[in-house]
Amino acid sequence: MSEIQVTGENPRTFPAHWKKCIGTGRLGLALQKDYLDHLKTVQKEIGFSYIRGHGLLHDDIGIYREIEVDGVKRPFYNFTYIDRIFDSFLDLGLKPFIEIGFMPKLLASDQQTIFAWEGNVTPPNDYQKWRDLIKAITQHFIERYGVKEVLTWPFEIWNEPNLVNFWKDADKEAYFKLYKMTAEAIKSVHPEIEVGGPAICGGSDHWITDFLSFCKTENVPVDFVSRHAYTSKPPHKVTPDYYYQELEEPEKMLQEFENVRQMINDSDYPDLPFHITEYNTSYSPINPVHDTTLNAAYLAKILSEGGEHVDSFSYWTFSDVFEELDVPKAQFHGGFGLMGLNHIRKPTYHLFAFFNRLGAKLLYRDDQLIVTEKENGDIVAIVWNLVMNKGEKHDRSLSVQLPVSNGLYFTSTQSISEKHANPWRVWKEQGRPRFPSKAQVDTLKQSAIPYFESSQTEVTRDQLTLHLTLTKNEVRLLEINRVNDETDTYLGLDDHLIDTY
Amino acid sequence: MSEIQVTGENPRTFPAHWKKCIGTGRLGLALQKDYLDHLKTVQKEIGFSYIRGHGLLHDDIGIYREIEVDGVKRPFYNFTYIDRIFDSFLDLGLKPFIEIGFMPKLLASDQQTIFAWEGNVTPPNDYQKWRDLIKAITQHFIERYGVKEVLTWPFEIWNEPNLVNFWKDADKEAYFKLYKMTAEAIKSVHPEIEVGGPAICGGSDHWITDFLSFCKTENVPVDFVSRHAYTSKPPHKVTPDYYYQELEEPEKMLQEFENVRQMINDSDYPDLPFHITEYNTSYSPINPVHDTTLNAAYLAKILSEGGEHVDSFSYWTFSDVFEELDVPKAQFHGGFGLMGLNHIRKPTYHLFAFFNRLGAKLLYRDDQLIVTEKENGDIVAIVWNLVMNKGEKHDRSLSVQLPVSNGLYFTSTQSISEKHANPWRVWKEQGRPRFPSKAQVDTLKQSAIPYFESSQTEVTRDQLTLHLTLTKNEVRLLEINRVNDETDTYLGLDDHLIDTY
Amino acid sequence: MSEIQVTGENPRTFPAHWKKCIGTGRLGLALQKDYLDHLKTVQKEIGFSYIRGHGLLHDDIGIYREIEVDGVKRPFYNFTYIDRIFDSFLDLGLKPFIEIGFMPKLLASDQQTIFAWEGNVTPPNDYQKWRDLIKAITQHFIERYGVKEVLTWPFEIWNEPNLVNFWKDADKEAYFKLYKMTAEAIKSVHPEIEVGGPAICGGSDHWITDFLSFCKTENVPVDFVSRHAYTSKPPHKVTPDYYYQELEEPEKMLQEFENVRQMINDSDYPDLPFHITEYNTSYSPINPVHDTTLNAAYLAKILSEGGEHVDSFSYWTFSDVFEELDVPKAQFHGGFGLMGLNHIRKPTYHLFAFFNRLGAKLLYRDDQLIVTEKENGDIVAIVWNLVMNKGEKHDRSLSVQLPVSNGLYFTSTQSISEKHANPWRVWKEQGRPRFPSKAQVDTLKQSAIPYFESSQTEVTRDQLTLHLTLTKNEVRLLEINRVNDETDTYLGLDDHLIDTY
Amino acid sequence: MSEIQVTGENPRTFPAHWKKCIGTGRLGLALQKDYLDHLKTVQKEIGFSYIRGHGLLHDDIGIYREIEVDGVKRPFYNFTYIDRIFDSFLDLGLKPFIEIGFMPKLLASDQQTIFAWEGNVTPPNDYQKWRDLIKAITQHFIERYGVKEVLTWPFEIWNEPNLVNFWKDADKEAYFKLYKMTAEAIKSVHPEIEVGGPAICGGSDHWITDFLSFCKTENVPVDFVSRHAYTSKPPHKVTPDYYYQELEEPEKMLQEFENVRQMINDSDYPDLPFHITEYNTSYSPINPVHDTTLNAAYLAKILSEGGEHVDSFSYWTFSDVFEELDVPKAQFHGGFGLMGLNHIRKPTYHLFAFFNRLGAKLLYRDDQLIVTEKENGDIVAIVWNLVMNKGEKHDRSLSVQLPVSNGLYFTSTQSISEKHANPWRVWKEQGRPRFPSKAQVDTLKQSAIPYFESSQTEVTRDQLTLHLTLTKNEVRLLEINRVNDETDTYLGLDDHLIDTY
């Protein structure tokens, strides 16, 4: 039983970088109604500022085509779908965090692809055509959305070029060439558009240094640095339906944020923003951890502290409407999404929604607790009990003393745990229906609502003490509002005359 | 601890008369957006067939007016608002259960009014004009909605004429005259329109007999008999803000249903339908009981058994958008509504929503339990623990054995109690804000959701036994679905490899 | 045939004061669904900033009540409805332009009322209670909406106190007393809230001077001056259903704007803003002119030039959901509304929607034409042909030369006239159905759409000449967009191979 | 100038078979939001009963997959997407008209594909797996939607097997084998599910006879016969962007309907229903005719008379959200859709909407006119002026005498022509923007509204004569309603006192 004394002295600003950006399945999916329905709810209840995903140049969106005229192939740029997609994003209050990739089939130098949807990961077969394409899309975005708007969109070049499955041979020199060509093409349209990279993933931090040196040496524009972060260890079981991994401690991810930030600080570009353009526990879209309360409890610390090190970090992804490993084969399948299929909120969804209720003033923060104050004086805290050891079950008790002036207080809590707001568990009880009926979906939706409790407390010594016991992997939101008690204005009120409370 | 054995033998049909009709504040309120928003939700989640309320002829809807031409007043019938109102009802799947009343000011023979909105309760000053009015509205309804539709609308003449505040002097002869004039005017437009009365309230059952004798003797048309039912005793405290009463046992209301049914059976019209066109615990719109779980637990038996005695019984009313005692003065004020102000579902709302999930086949029923089966074989039950004694707190434990074949079952429960789905309690903790902020309303909405739990059980001896403990005034819905277990189809599934459940 | 040469030299800003504020029927109507549906459309297609109407303190909203405690009456302030109303306005992007009035029945010193809805127009019977009420509502608005928001709301004291039907005896001294008491009560809650008056109507301009002198002499706060403006002459026929009047020339209204502005300039408060808090052609809600194209053609000049003289002018009113002369008795009845009953746009609605498409740069303006340029270079003009003489029918022809550079242009026009977008005429053809069926309403909606035409023109000498012939009371919107011609990009295109154009 | 005398004698029922079914782009597109938005509008304003499209078994919906277990591939049926799609259809009031096809890649015996989306058109590589697949989907549909529902869905086997690009080698014997295997697999799940074929296209009517003989000989189940119909001649110009063809006369299509009906009548199955499961003018999705008024005027006769010969005929297709020739490359591109991209109604859309207003009683019909009566006595007619000769421009005048009793009549017309409701023309004036801006789309939408006119006529000799002049390819809806004239009820009405009409 730990006792925590929140003094409220020396408050500082809590940086809300956790909600700057969110990841998405390939952009072509953004034509789908379910995708947009999920995103609308996410924006209403969480409200990210940017969205980033693969596939801007993939053939399903179909921007790059060729038409044969008099025996000569010439490029045709088709913006029918990308206009529809970006219109949808902007309508929902989201700006594109542009990711340039993958390679249109007609421009590809080789046949290597990634994912069920076969994104081509090879360099262009013709750099002039590539530059023309990049200029054309940049120009089109400015024409349609206005230069003022487009100047707020970061353009990140490619995705994870340090991995052989995302960039042919993980060829660093080839990437630097692609980066240079692409960045210069973008800047030729408007020099103030922000470009960046190298969007690497896994343990290749030297790419960061090499990349910045390259930019310096070659005088290539760079406006931000980006990287990804996943904390899962190598899989110990891989099956057609599931992929099982252990996780590193969450501290490891924060440490990685800090390390790379330090590398940038030490480079020729110490002031560049640093964006984590993807992160999650596991990098596998069929790792069941994503459907669990553990995932939420695990990420709580990342959301709480990540913003101290990086300018944005983008959870991968908002929805299980996702096709990297083919069409999802079951209601729950270990997908990345905050929102599961059939519009069912997963525990991690609520973690984000809880963080969205925090105030801007940070009063206290430790490994499993964050306490903030809102503009109107309300205190909002989130507390969690991460238990990573298999089978372990220990609850965690703590007391938190909050500095409030005397008076009545209304405390309400919402909680997610193995017992509540855990539709994955309920779905297992239903017999794991792959394609649940509407009635089953209704039940799952109801099961996905956080547990609510409230109480009224009188504070007499300028201190409100909360005694809390959290079950395994519980995440709890606490909201403390000062009560403006109007009870006395009800004339003749007598609760004793009613047989219930 | 009682043990209940449901055999499932000799099942019969459960008559869903509890959802035939719902009461409403005066019809003029149906122009309001909030009213319609509440009604839309009620219809989606409960789905009544008819709606009945006062004030069809009240001056706010303004059907009856007079225009002076050359010094002579002549009637003008204005259907602007009533068309809008009935259009709204029909769009929501509700037919009007017409109540003819109260008296337009220009037709009133005296000034006596009722309610803050001043419904005039005196006989017409000119029966010819009254008949013309009744014919005009009937004719208009047929023109606008078609004769086929209007033939499904019952026309009830006046409201509670046996009470002096609803009908001047509670003059029975005067009522019979009004009834005859009105019924005959309606039938003159179309002889198959259903007319009825006497819509009495309180302990004046002899009106029923007298009314039917009058119809017989005078050869006056009558197609149904109606009555109201409230089970509250005289108030023991009346204050500007609240009205406190004890309640009779629920059995008393059912007994009253049966008694009147018997009186009809014994009359010259033994086959007439019998409608309870209003019922509730208390007849006061500022009795806090309406906001409580007690109200729900109390009414459970009425919903369960009332339909055995009457053809419809209409809960008074669906929403706290209501003005009989002036504009509501606080979020919770003891109003009749299933739905409170600001779209907050009250416990009794959920009682109705629970009943709406029952199946059509009745397997078992006792004082605090009803067990049904749906067409697809699912078993749905509602169990409750009515505790009327002040201060008493005893929980109730029972076991229920259900006849199901061997296999896996998924049981889900939703529950309302003093602890859960009790926004009235939470509102008290908030300091009883009369006009809550949007944030407070959000919290109240969240607090109003029933508590959800679920589990999976394996049945091995053709019997599923549920062990239940209900807290004071808890009402619980139980849904038992046979599981079609797909677990084995997940290749490589191994829940032990994930650190949570 | 006039020839107009628009040079585009010395452009200035077109002040969009015409859309600062819109009038509404009494605020209590804002609870109605139809009212809000109309307002939502108005805001989407026109987009006013403020809304002003009577009845804030009227008893249907019920803010002021008294409760008897121990034989003593004490005030009770009920914000249930006004919160709902202001929430709705703000949700639709509208701020309240507060009008303090009329008198709650319990505070009235006499029984004189106005309108079918009986607004009491007498001074308070107790100035202390009045001040307490004013403070209470001001305080409540700040608590609910925040001080920052409320500081953007003007508070106008009373309505048309110079008319005996709006203020008992049109007693100027009594009004000044009310003004002082009210303004000081408001300022006591927050000194920066804007207060103003005297909201007079008709030919009593000396009230303006007297009012400002009074404020100066008595040191009473005043932050703006307000007045109303109607241009109808005394009625020549008054019937139960209709009220007929001739109109003054539109110039007369503009002259009145200018005169009062000058009076303010010459006062001790030369810098005060001046708001026309009501204007229209006729002040009668049953003058058929409001339903006609004439009304639109007449007001075009007011919208075009009014903003040069006043800081806002508020058309009275946005919708025929209105009850001053009782519930509307027919689909079209001469109501003030831009939007008629059943969501049917009237010609004047389109006038406002046309003005909403104008650019901010004013290129040219005369009596029947306004030409503007938008930020993107598009030219948008409105031209009209006001014909006030009865029976007269002359069309008007003109040519307009616009300064545009060489190239292709797309010109589209929308037009309202006696023939098109004139649902009033169509309704007459339908037999003037008072309460039209849904099918008739659908036809009226379709008839209410402006006539659309478009063409493509090639400009070769830096000048685009439009030859226009307008029918009687036609109002036409002209939009000229430079064409970015993509025709050549369609390979193999050959329009001659298709049998139509 | 023709004179047409409609006597109204011997009326018969107008068979509404034209609205039984509608075509769609491949089913996978039904996941898209725009697709569903278009379909929602179509259903509201036209209201088809069934929807039919390709691609049920195509790999983008992904029903058929294989999973390797212990080195053995076994089938996995994924219903995630098809459930979503059929749920959407049913929510919109549409039942699937099932088309079994094309071949999942994993079951294909060869690599031949059709369309940009690469539908495989080869026989199964393993008939056992194919039968299992067919059974599995049929069984799944019954489980999810209920047997009662699925029994109303026709199952058509394959699409246009008589064409080499739709069925490898157009191998008839291979098709018959596929048909037999598939039909029997379906019937093995439920013997009452309707199966049919052969869904041929073009001039291969002998397939009909052969198919029915085959069924008879082999005792293969067959419940309906299906065929397609297009009336375009071979192309005279084919370009990357457009495909130009002349059209046969519309009579030719009707003759084809009749011929095949006769073949069925003469077969061993004379009572089988006959469905035209696709028809249009041109079979090319880039023939500009589809965007024109000509297309509407051409099809009018088909809609008017087609239902006399066939049980359903399904226009191909409802929307330009369609990908057979890749992502559409421009706003207008000659697509099949009733609805163009960006929710713009094309002329043929209105043709269907006009037909949807016709009554059930057929009073008169000729080549360019259909006159009907509605249940309420309203007369509704459609008249058109098809001009197929290039360059020709002649208007057509006619008079129509309608048998109505004396009284006042309100006549309203809606019209589409080269001038009105022709967004294709307006888009050309805009410079044919491939990816129009939102402002351009708004203009196009406005331009797409039919021209409306109305008038009132007094009938004195039991005959209403309409004098009509139609421009080239105009299609006009005429609605004649008897007027219930309320003019006299307006007291004091005097239209002469208002300066406009």
From TrEMBL, chains A, B, C, D:
Keywords, ordered alphabetically: Glycosidase, Hydrolase
Family stated for the protein in its record: Belongs to the glycosyl hydrolase 39 family.
Gene Ontology MF, one: hydrolase activity, hydrolyzing O-glycosyl compounds
Species annotation: Gracilibacillus kekensis
Domain Glycosyl hydrolases family 39 N-terminal catalytic: 11-455
Record protein name field: Xylan 1,4-beta-xylosidase
GO biological process, one term: carbohydrate metabolic process
Annotated catalytic residues: 160
